[in-house]
Write a structure and sequence with these properties.
By secondary structure, the chain is mainly α. The chain contains 20 helices and no strands.
Length: 432
């Protein structure tokens, strides 16, 4: 009964604070302070200081601001224009035409950004006007962008994957390895959906194909610096030459050189990229501080252990547990952003998942995909807000346009559950 009362107090406090617009990090901290005051005799200030210092002093976390800075630099470069020019001539002949550029460009930018919202914004600022000008259906432009933009959470280097790895004490490099094949497979499934849609709507789908396909060699050269940057960052991790943090530093240097070569780097854009990365990093760190202290407060009450024992008492099969967790994270994603969902729930979910015998590398990939769904589910879908700002469309239209991509991701979760080797094979091979 006391544990049930604790859960009610924790959840009601948290959702009231979030509902009145308190920052996520502050809401987590305030909820933890209330829980510590009500349910423990431990000194709140001392406990908070020790916990927050422990959360923030991880060497692995140093990769986070560096990857964010790399994405900020490239966001302010001519990358979106380069990606569109480079990929369009090669993808236009597929059924669905230039809609595939949304997926291809999102996959490429995801591999050098790690942020879902940045991926949508970078690719969208070039592709939306280009595709609208060529008479592509707006619901497909928006839908493919919102879905493919979520690849920023899955394809390495993923910021959310770094947070997950730090939270559950797993190797960031191995998590990146585990996510590579599923990320490419999910991008392929988005493209397959576009092909199927184009064939089913052949009669009404008549875009204007006025693309200049001359100088293909020059288009390949346009893509070469971006591809070299991806190979340099991801390849250095996979080959064991560099840690995730060292690869992130290499990525920042490469992004600066790429921007200078494109002549898009100015002192203003450079300082903007620094301040943008500082703001984003501070926001993430604030959430981690609150989540770490809330986990400690909940640990004092015995809630994580009680929930794990309760669910263990249900004698659920691993498949049933994954089904319940999928529904749980989809519902949670309607109210919290993906990053907050991860750090808030891992204290309870991790022991449960380990007890069920799941490979944590596989679970990390699964979690990223399920959290990706939160990026395109209203009312708190970051990708939806980004697209609303870029297109001026209402949230209902954008949500409806994104729903088919949500279904594609649901299908891929089933595939990942049925074929866990998609996530576990590459780390096993590269670790030998």
């Amino acid at each position: 009964m006391s544990e049930a009362l604790s859960i009610i107090i924790f959840l009601s406090t948290l959702f009231v604070l979030l509902g009145i617009g308190v920052w996520v990090g502050a809401a987590l901290l305030l909820t933890a302070i209330l829980g510590m005051a009500l349910f423990t005799s431990a000194p709140i200030g001392d406990s908070m200081a020790v916990t927050i210092w422990g959360e923030q002093s991880s060497w692995t976390l140093t990769a986070l601001p560096l990857f964010i800075w790399m994405g900020e630099i490239l966001f302010r470069s001519k990358l979106s224009e380069t990606l569109f020019r480079g990929l369009a001539p090669f993808l236009r002949r597929l059924p669905g035409g230039l809609l595939h550029v949304n997926v291809g460009a999102s996959a490429v930018f995801a591999a050098i950004s790690g942020s879902s919202a940045a991926t949508v914004a970078t690719v969208g600022k070039m592709s939306i006007p280009e595709l609208q000008q060529r008479n592509y259906p707006e619901h497909m432009i928006i839908g493919t962008l919102s879905g493919a933009g979520t690849l920023g959470l899955l394809i390495p280097p993923s910021i959310s994957m770094i947070i997950f790895g730090v939270t559950v004490n797993e190797s960031i490099s191995k998590l990146f390895m585990a996510a590579m094949i599923p990320g490419l497979c999910l991008a392929l499934m988005f493209m397959i959906y576009i092909v199927i849609w184009a064939k089913l709507n052949r009669a009404s789908f008549n875009p204007v194909e006025d693309l200049d396909v001359s100088h293909l060699g020059r288009r390949v050269l346009d893509l070469a610096p971006v591809l070299l940057l991806i190979i340099g960052v991801i390849g250095s991790i996979y080959s064991g030459i560099a840690t995730a943090t060292e690869a992130a530093a290499l990525g920042v240097l490469g992004a600066i050189l790429l921007s200078l070569s494109q002549r898009s780097m100015t002192w203003q854009s450079f300082t903007d990229s620094i301040m943008g990365s500082v703001r984003t990093t501070a926001m993430i760190m604030f959430i981690l501080m609150g989540a770490g202290f809330l986990s400690l407060a909940m640990g004092f009450t015995g809630i994580p252990r009680a929930l794990a024992e309760t669910i263990e008492g249900w004698k659920l099969s691993p498949l049933a547990l994954i089904a319940i967790l999928t529904v749980f994270y989809i519902i949670l994603g309607c109210f919290l952003d993906g990053l907050s969902s991860i750090v808030l729930t891992m204290a309870v979910i991790e022991p449960m998942v380990r007890a069920a015998g799941f490979d944590m590398l596989w679970f990390g990939v699964y979690l990223m995909i399920v959290v990706e769904m939160a990026q395109i589910t209203p009312p708190i879908g970051f990708n939806l807000f980004v697209l609303q700002g870029m297109t001026g469309r209402d949230m209902g239209f954008i949500s409806k346009a994104s729903f088919p991509m949500f279904l594609v991701m649901c299908v891929f979760v089933v595939i990942l559950v049925m074929a866990p080797g998609l996530a576990t094979w590459l780390p096993e091979v590269l670790s030998k």
